[in-house]
Write a structure and sequence with these properties.
The protein has about 260 residues and is α/β, with parallel strands linked by helices. The chain folds into two domains: about 5-35 and about 170-255, Rossmann fold (3-Layer(aba) Sandwich), CATH 3.40.50; about 40-165, 3-Layer(aba) Sandwich (Rossmann fold). The protein is built from ten helices and eleven strands. The chain has helices at about 20-25, 45-50, 65-75, 95-100, 120-125, 145-150, 185-195, 210-220, 235-245, 255, and strands at about 5-10, 30-35, 35-40, 60, 85-90, 110, 135-140, 155-165, 180-185, 205-210, 225-230. Helix 7 (about 185-195) packs parallel to helix 8 (about 210-220). The longest helix is centred in the N-terminal third of the chain and has 13 residues, at about 65-75.
Length: about 260
Amino acid sequence: MIIKKILVSQPKPESDKSPYFDIAEKYGVDIVFRPFIKVEGLSAKEFRAQKINIADFTAVIFTAKTAIDNFFRLCEETRVSIPDTEKYFCSSESIANYLQKYIIYRKRKIFASKTGRLDGIIPQMVKHKGEKYLLVVSDVHNNGKDSKLLTDNKVAFTPAAMYRTVSNDFTPDEAFDYDMLVFFSPQGIQSLQKNFPDFKQGDICIATFGATTAKAAEEAGLRVDVAAPSPEAPSMTQAIENYLAKVQPPKTDDAEE
């Protein structure tokens, strides 16, 4: 089957240097960026129900930019003033840099993982064991891998739910004529089922990133045609390109004419 149109269930990349655009050009495919899920913040009332006082904590752990947005939003809504002595531990440098949206970066104590994962910042946390850590999470974190990592390394912390992931519903007049659907989370699979309860895969290719996403797809009765990461395809874009290279030739200049 020739792939002509791909739906990527993520926001459109901010940079025009994204590999997705290279793939679209090379293989002559139309790539549409349309998230199946969206994040919405918990209300101040919902947050207060957790009986967590932000002011009691001396350090905050961020694993997503969404967590930063909702942390500072709730601080404002609950009238909590964050002292200049507050420490911030971020799972990547891009997340740490995002803090500049809310604070004067150079005047704060900010620690960023160089690996792009939370484990890269654990040594710094261990050095600061005296801090009271607040881990900003979604409402369905369920003591996930980040919590387990912190617990295994004896980092004392309190998880605080500040946002939730919900289905980003499709409108009745929104076209759904894709040859490949690309998912990055189990919630994306759930959103597909919610929006299209009678969905039949047929020849449509399903691409998934991560073991939990692939498992969710299979449990939903879907056939996973493209999976990442793998030794041959550490990224989703590489996996998609590897698949396209097998099923269809790259676009040629003659084809353009």
